[in-house]
Every structure is written in structure tokens, then in C-alpha cells.
Design a protein that fits this description.
There is one protein chain. This protein has 543 residues and is α/β, with parallel strands linked by helices. Helices cover 41% and strands 12% of the residues. It is built from 23 helices and eleven strands. Helix 1 packs across helix 5 and helix 18 packs across helix 20. About 7% of the residues have low confidence. Keywords: Hydrolase.
């Protein structure tokens, strides 16, 4: 089932495939560089002073009242931000300081005022991370520039620390270093805070650039030996950042964050004796299982995995049976849709996943449709890329339909074991250069014709021996795909095609559940609804 390949860069947050070729560490950089961002005012648009002012207006407090209390050198907030006390210790102390300041000013604190109001507003402000800053960090890191976030914040030992944990997880995934003042013992813009960050990054101050909205912070960074940018307009500041690093970031389409094979969690489940499934896992939340197509790997989802995890899902990307580090049994019947579904259900059961959202591409798309139709109790939602739903037609055998459609002649060629394997395995690098091609490059690359394959004597017959690599793949991507097929080859992947007749017979004999979108079928009664939010997200990830 050769379809348009799952675009590895996709349109996640507006990113384009052309930027993939630049997503490599520059070899000609004279020295390491680092960009340090102040969390307050840059990574998030809010400043602590703005949070204080908002609360003062809401509760009728004198302007500057909270800022005055918070800025006391030996006050509770300053001490908490330096790690001298925890949040639970800070709250009563800060409350007492507010009462003392109110008494000194002859002000009566309103009845609806409490320190928890400040904390809630603070948490709300911290969640508003600016997407363009994350994009900028991704661009910089792809070019070998280190990135860091420095934040004045306390040690949160409250029952509401989940928000901070999620924020730190997001930042930790997008920056080389996230340094909180409570762990440093120093606050921004103190020299000790800068030195701590530089030491952990392993660079000197002359190699670093600091971005801040506060003039005090800019001057302090310059005194520390760093270059600095006063962020009055974020877009203009990012252009100056580009001038310093040599990396185009402002206004550029940045590559999305990917999960590298050596930087992601790998797992293995023995489905039954002699059959093992390899998977990659990231994130927490409702489970989403990604099923790739032909001829691919879990690695085809490398751009989608981090994005889905960041969106609040537990993502599991499989090496499908016959691929990569999963078992590749030689028997054709091992790859029937019936057996593949049984294996997938066993995988879910052993992972204690009662129900899952399934997302598939190409043959993976066919499998997720099969799961949704024949095992609907296991499927919460389903989405397929490039592979529409083809219900089995009892009046027309699958083999006859293939013969009637010339574009599927390659599948007839794939039926006989041996010939296709030999052709595709002859030069793995060339094979993947042919298979992975962007539609935008159609005019400059030889077309892979799926009709007339049997008459030609092979899928690649007529194509030049030397094929240029598509912009969809970096050299590292190409090497990884080649490495995954060197050991087990194409026998297993091709066996997926060799069950068409068996699949048709089985599907025609089974009762099926409805698969529909509640929003497209009225009230959706008796249907398996797909999640509108999830499909919207998937569309963003894949264009």
C-alpha cells in the first residue's frame, strides 16, 4: 500500500519540510554559543509587577502595595525565591508582611484578599508560554546553540504543584537548561544566578546572550560579561538574536522538536512466544497508539510524538510486526488483519490499556480501521492518514478489485515472495530515497509509477541508479531507516500485502461496528465517535 508518505516535518505549528535540511548541528561554528531567556516577560509575556498590579486593581489595594511588600530584601517572597523557605512557609509569612504594610499605610485589607489569590494569578501567568520562543529555541538547538530559561520562583510544596511540574516538563523538553532561583540560591539578575547557569551550560560569559524585558537585568548581564538584548518588541529582539547566533529565527519557519532514538524511552512486549513488539513511549494522559505504514518505522512519528505528548497524551509509537526491532516472522499468515488485531489487543492487555485512541498511516491506517470496525470496544477514537475506510464487499473479492485498478499493479507484483524482497533489499539507501519523496519535489525527481510494475519486471525498473535524497529526510534519518531494514529486510513488511484474500474472507464473515464522526452524522447514536479535538490536532501535525 504505497501512499503519500507521512510528512516527517508536517505542518506542526506552521513548520515546513524545507527546514529539515537545516536541522543539523553546524560544523563550522567557531565556538559554542548560548542564549539565556528570562522566564518573566520573555518566555511568558507577564512580569511579576504586572501580576501584582492586576491584583491591586481587582481588590482595591493601593497601587504598588504588593510590589513594595514583595521587594523587601529579607521579605518572605525574596527568601522563598532564593530557596530559604518553601511555598507553604512563605504563605503565612507573606500574609503577615501584607498586614504589617497595610497597618503602616493605614490601609484596610479587603475581605476578599488572600495570598492564594496571588498564587493563582501567578500560576495562570506562568502557563502562558509564548510559542514563538519555543520555536526559536528549537531552531537554535538544531544549529548547536545552547538555550536556557532562568526564572525567579519558589520551591512549590503545595497541593497545586502539578501546574509547575507540567510547565517544567514543557520547558525541559524545549531548552537545554531550566534554572529556578530557589535551586540556585540566587535571583535574576544577581551575578550568582548567571554564573550558575553558565557553569551548568559549560560556557563562558562571552559566549552567552541574555534576553530580558527589564533594564536592570540587561545591565546586570553586561556587567557579568554577557551580551544582552532589551526586549521591548519580541519580534525585533529575535532578529537581534539571529545576528548574534548566525541562526535565522525571527520570521522563519522553525523545525519542530523531534524525539531522537537515543533520547526516548523504548519498550518491548512479548505478545506470545517468539513474537515481540517494540515501541517508543512518551507523555502521560489518555493513551494514543501510533501505527506506521510501509516501508517505515516508529521513527516516522518522530515529529508527532513530542507534540502529542505535550498536548497531554500518553503516546506509544510501535514498530509494526515485521519492522525494526519488532519480531519479523516469515510466515505470511502472521500478517493477516485478524492476527495483527489479535496481537495489538494482546499488546494493549499486557500494557493494561483497556481502550485507546488509534492513529494509523498507510497500512497502519488500514489496521486501525479494522480495529475500530471489528473490535470497537477497544477503540476510543480512530484517525487514519492517507488510508480511507474500505469496507469489505462480499460481492467482490479483494484480488479482483486489485486487478481492476492499474495503480495497484505493484501489489500484484508484491504477491510472490522473493522477487520484490530482492529488488527492495538490493540497495537499501536507494530504496528509501525513492520511497520518501515530497510532492513539492515532483518536478525535480523521477516519479515512482505503481502501474505496469509486473510488465516492467519490478517497481524500480526504469528509475536512475543515482537518486538524490529528498528534503523530507536528513542524512541521519536516512541512515536510521537503512539500519532498521538491514537486519530483518522486507519479507515481513511485504507479507502485509500477501493477505488480501484472507483478509477479505475474514472481514466478510465478521459482524462490524459503525465508525463515524458524531459531528458528521447527526446525534451519532450507535456510532463510534471520533474526537473532534484529536482529529484537529492530528491535522495540524500532518498537514
Amino acid at each position: 500500500m504505497i501512499t503519500t508518505p507521512l510528512h516527517p516535518c508536517s505542518k506542526l505549528q506552521g513548520f515546513q519540510a524545507d527546514t529539515l535540511t537545516s536541522c543539523r548541528v553546524s560544523e563550522d561554528m567557531a565556538a559554542k554559543k548560548a542564549v539565556l531567556f528570562n522566564f518573566w516577560g520573555v518566555v511568558v509575556p507577564s512580569r511579576p509587577g504586572g501580576v501584582f498590579h492586576k491584583l491591586e486593581e481587582q481588590h482595591g489595594l493601593p497601587r504598588g502595595f504588593l510590589s513594595q511588600v514583595a521587594s523587601q530584601t529579607k521579605g518572605a517572597l525574596m527568601q522563598a525565591e532564593k530557596g530559604k523557605m518553601t511555598l507553604n512557609q512563605m504563605v503565612p509569612a507573606f500574609k503577615a508582611e501584607c498586614a504589617k504594610e497595610a497597618k503602616a499605610r493605614g490601609v484596610t485589607l479587603p475581605s476578599d484578599w488572600c495570598v492564594n489569590c496571588l498564587l493563582e494569578e501567578d500560576r495562570k501567568a506562568m502557563r502562558d508560554v509564548q510559542e514563538i520562543v519555543l520555536k526559536t529555541s528549537a531552531s537554535l538547538r538544531c544549529k548547536g546553540v545552547l538555550t536556557a530559561v532562568l526564572a525567579n520562583h519558589w520551591l512549590d510544596d503545595s497541593a497545586s504543584a502539578d501546574d509547575l511540574a507540567q510547565l517544567l516538563c514543557l520547558l525541559g523538553h524545549n531548552f537545554n537548561l531550566v534554572l529556578l532561583s530557589c535551586h540556585s540560591g540566587h535571583r535574576v539578575p544577581e551575578l550568582g544566578m548567571f554564573n550558575s547557569a553558565l557553569d551548568q551550560l559549560g560556557i563562558s560569559s562571552k559566549q552567552a546572550l541574555w534576553l530580558d524585558v527589564e533594564k536592570e537585568g540587561v545591565k546586570a548581564a553586561e556587567r557579568a560579561g554577557m551580551k544582552s538584548i532589551l526586549v521591548e518588541n519580541l519580534e525585533a529582539a529575535l532578529q537581534k538574536l539571529s545576528d548574534f547566533t548566525g541562526v535565522q529565527t525571527a520570521g522563519a519557519e522553525s523545525p519542530p522538536v523531534i524525539c531522537h532514538p537515543d533520547q526516548v524511552s523504548h519498550g518491548y512486549i512479548t505478545v506470545r512466544p517468539g513474537v515481540r513488539t517494540h515501541y517508543v513511549e512518551m507523555g502521560s494522559g489518555p493513551p494514543v497508539l501510533l501505527c506506521h505504514g510501509f516501508p517505515e518505522s516508529w521513527y516516522s512519528w518522530r515529529y508527532q510524538i513530542p507534540a502529542l505528548a505535550a498536548a497531554g497524551f500518553r503516546v506509544l509509537a510501535l514498530d509494526m510486526k515485521g519492522y525494526g526491532q519488532s519480531t519479523a516472522p516469515p510466515d505470511i499468515e502472521e500478517y493477516s488483519q485478524e492476527q495483527l488485531c489479535k496481537d495489538l489487543i494482546t499488546f494493549m492487555d499486557k500494557m493494561f490499556i483497556p481502550q485507546v485512541t488509534l492513529v494509523g498511516h498507510d497500512w497502519g491506517g488500514a489496521l486501525v480501521w479494522t480495529m475500530a470496525r471489528y473490535f470497537p470496544e477497544k477503540v476510543r477514537a480512530v484517525a487514519s492518514l492517507n488510508t480511507p475506510l474500505f469496507p469489505a464487499d462480499p460481492s467482490a473479492p479483494a484480488s479482483e478489485k486489485l486487478k481492476a485498478l492499474p495503480i495497484f499493479d505493484y501489489q500484484i507484483y508484491f504477491q510472490k515472495p522473493g522477487a520484490a524482497e530482492a529488488e527492495l533489499e538490493k540497495d537499501l539507501e536507494r530504496s528509501f530515497k525513492i520511497f520518501f519523496s515530497s510532492s513539492s519535489e515532483a518536478a525535480s525527481r523521477p516519479a515512482l509509477k505503481t502501474s505496469g510494475v509486473c510488465a516492467r519486471g519490478g517497481l524500480f525498473v526504469g528509475l536512475p541508479e543515482q537518486i538524490t535524497r529528498s528534503s523530507m529526510l536528513t542524512e541521519a534519518d536516512l541512515r536510521y531507516y537503512v539500519s532498521q531494514f538491514k537486519e530483518s529486510g522486507f519479507r515481513g513488511p511485504l507479507n502485509w500485502y500477501r493477505n488480501n484474500q484472507a483478509n477479505w474472507k475474514w472481514m466478510c464473515s465478521q459482524p462490524t461496528g459503525k465508525v463515524c464522526d458524531r459531528n458528521l452524522t447527526g446525534n451519532g447514536e450507535n456510532c463510534r465517535p471520533r474526537s473532534r479535538f484529536f482529529l484537529t490536532l492530528i491535522n495540524r501535525l500532518t498537514g
